[in-house]
Amino acid sequence: QVQLVESGGGLVQAGGSLRLSCAPSGNIFSINVFNWYRQAPGKQRELVARITSGGTTNYADSVKGRFTISRDNAKNTVYLQMNGLKPEDTAVYYCNLISRNTYWGQGTQVTVSS
C-alpha cells in the first residue's frame, strides 16, 4: 500500500506563501493523477489543483494565478506552491493520488491570518 506523507502546512499572514509537499512512501504506477484538495470547517471538500502523469494541470478558479502544482518525477513527489495567500485559503489540505488505486495523505493545516 502506498502512503502519502504531507508536509509544509503552517500559519502565515495574508499575502504570504507556503509550499506543500506530498511524498509517496514507495513506487507508484507511472500513469496517475495527483490532486490537492482542501476542506474548511463547515464546508465541502473542494478540488484545488490537479496534475496528470502527462503534466497537464488544472486549478480551481479561486486559486488560479496564485497556486502552482508541480511534480518531481525523480522523487515521485508533488508540490503545491501557494502564493498570495488569503484568509479564505485557510483549510486542511489533502494530497490525493489516483492510479491503480486511490490514496490520501493525512492532511496538513494551512492557516492564513488577516
What does this structure look like?
The protein is mainly β. It has no helices and eleven strands. The strands form two sheets. Strands 2, 4, 5, 6, 9, 10 and 11 form a seven-stranded mixed sheet that branches. Strands 1-3-8-7 form a four-stranded antiparallel sheet, with no helix packed on it. The mean pLDDT is 95.
Element layout with pairings:
Blueprint: E1 4-7, E2 10-13, E3 18-24, E4 33-39, E5 46-52, E6 57-59, E7 67-72, E8 77-82, E9 91-98, E10 102-104, E11 108-113
Parallel strand pairs: 2-11
Antiparallel strand pairs: 1-3, 3-8, 4-5, 4-9, 5-6, 7-8, 9-10, 9-11
Task: Outline the biggest β-sheet.
Answer: 7 strands, mixed
Distance linking N and C termini = 40 Å
What amount of the residues lies in strands?
A: over 45%
Q: Helix fraction?
A: under 10%
Taken in chain order, the helices and strands follow as EEEEEEEEEEE
Strand tally is 11
What shape does the CA trace take? globular
Which ranges are low-confidence, i.e. pLDDT below 50, for 5 or more consecutive residues?
Answer: none
Oligomer: single chain
Brief rundown of the structure:
This protein has 114 residues and is mostly beta strands. 0% of the residues lie in helices and 54% in strands. It has strands at residues 4-7, 10-13, 18-24, 33-39, 46-52, 57-59, 67-72, 77-82, 91-98, 102-104, 108-113.
Question: What keyword list fits this structure?
Answer:
11 strands, mainly beta, 114 residues, 7-stranded mixed sheet, 4-stranded antiparallel sheet, 54% strand
